[in-house]
Amino acid sequence: MDAKVTFPVLLFCAAVCNPLFASEQAEQGQGGADSISSNRTFVAVTNIAECLRLASQVETNKPVSVRVRGALFQPVTNMFLIVDESAAMMVFVSDGYSMPSRKGDIIEVEGRIEYPIRHGLFAGRINIIGHGAVPEPLPVSLDDVLSGRFTSRLVTVEGRVRTMGRAQSALWVTLYSGGKYLPVTLLNWVEDSFFVGSELRVIGVCLSKFDSVLSRTYQWVLVGSQENVEIIRNNENPFSRPVRKVKHSDGKPLIEDSFKDGVHVRGVVVHGIYGKGFWIRDQNYGLSVRCSMRDELIPGEEVDVYGFVKTANDTVLLEDATFRRRGKVAPPRPVLLTSREQALAHVDDLVAIEGEVVGEHFGIEGDRRIMVRGKTVSAHIITDPWSDPAGREWNTGSRVRVAGICMVKKIDDPDNPMDRSMFSVQVLMRTPRDLTILQPSPWWSARTIAIVMGVMTGFLLLVIGVGVVVMRVRSRRMAMQRLHEQAMETERARIARDMHDELGARVTQISLLSAMSEQDPALPGHLRNSVGSISRISRELVAALSEVVWTINPAHGNLNSFADYLCQMTSRFCEGTGMSCRLDVPSAAGDEPLPSHVRHNLILAVREALNNAAKHARAREVRVQLARDGHGLTVRVQDNGCGFDMASTGAGNGLGNMRQRLEGLGGSTSIQSSAGSGTVVTFRLPEGILGRKGGKA
Known about the structure:
alpha+beta, five-stranded mixed barrel, 11 helices, about 30% helix
């Protein structure tokens, strides 16, 4: 055959009987189907043809509930066929469902039409309402069925069995008649009662299937059971026929195409390809056999083959064949080709060729094609991509002897289409053992020189690459050293600035406490009070040291820890100065990383603002706020002191230090104040500072 029809029948039957649509039916059972009809609106159709028309319009995830009547034609596992004068359709049921079994019962079915099933529905409730006659099937030809005019009709068709195959309880065959091929699926087939070449008459439902791969619609017939198959003539033992020859000694066809009857040949296997076919040698010529071979044939086995002759371009093959083993004989020896004309007489035979390897290329399917040129005949050697021998064997200049299956590819001449002299010879190599090295190629071949030059070029590029990497590593080390030196200088400057600010603040507190002690007339002994003040200031100096340790400790490097420390520091400061404090800090500020230098500079800036409120503004109350929003972090210090005129008051060291600290962090400081209205100092850090691990300390 020029083309074979692919059978989706078993996959189709498995899909329609799949539990995908049976879960709802399994919960309901036969008695629970009343709930279906009570909860749904069924479309009552006049005949099966109208129901099938609805099925062809069903969209994905939009099932249609219908009610239809028909006569029972054939029950099958998990489904049955109903027919009327208009059409036939399949009704699918779930496991355990009670199915009708008497042919001719008039059945009313309520069920669903589901996408993509176009030839049937899934039953929810089945009622037997009477008994009648089953419409007679329409006698049609294979050509009528393949035309698509009888889709979903009950038909009877005749033909000769061309191929057979079995899968579990189903048997699929190909019927041939009038140059046409029709796939037929026989369900519930118990045993093989006929053979290839038998003539059958079958009764079944004609169905259509769209093949998305081939982009075409093809027809097939589904037969419900063995009783709907009539054997007109049984080809009981095709191997009992006389053994025939199908080729002349020169390789020309002896028998024309045998579409109607097969032939029985006998030969010795020379090569086989699983699932596709094999080659045999019949007396003095080779023959290609095509079949769905599921058994591995070993070269040297003698087989009987029954198949159908097909000729094309002066070549002969047997297609749709079956075979039977006879026994083991001596493996055939290849015929050494000594001329191009000799290849025409040994097409599909086991041959050998000797010559020099002159080149190679790869085919479309990944097979390797090596050109071997001999004195009198040249050929392309086709190797299996999975078992291709590697090494110097195929180097240009090697002399080899290669065995394999001889194939001839005709080259059409438009001026003389009957000219047989225009052809090329190809040899299909079977295994790596078919290659014999007669003389290896010299090591100084062009291929070897190219490999050596490639290795040298690669080594040179490697040396250059290593040199570039070494230079980059050296430059990076020098840059890191410069950065380290800069960081050390920055750290020394920060320590000097911090010592200045810390000592200044503590000296201010000592001065305030001494003044308060002197102005209190109720306190006895200013000496004792002064010593007590000195003791408290010492404790504060210890707290300052603790603050430095807290700043360096990585365990406190997050926003939550900063918020806790800000509250503690503000409370301690206000207790020592007599101010009351209000803290507006969220209980869960967040766990974003906050570098140590950011925390340290921000704490010192806040302390400077508190110190200004106590020392210069003489505030009675101070309010500290911490806010986190999408723009960054904001810390606000607000007091109710005397304030100052920002236009007439110059910026002292304290205000300048606060601005310098925030600007060094990439943030900003804003001060709002006027005489008699208090002061608000706001520190803002951009979003990029938060969540950035590490950083310069």
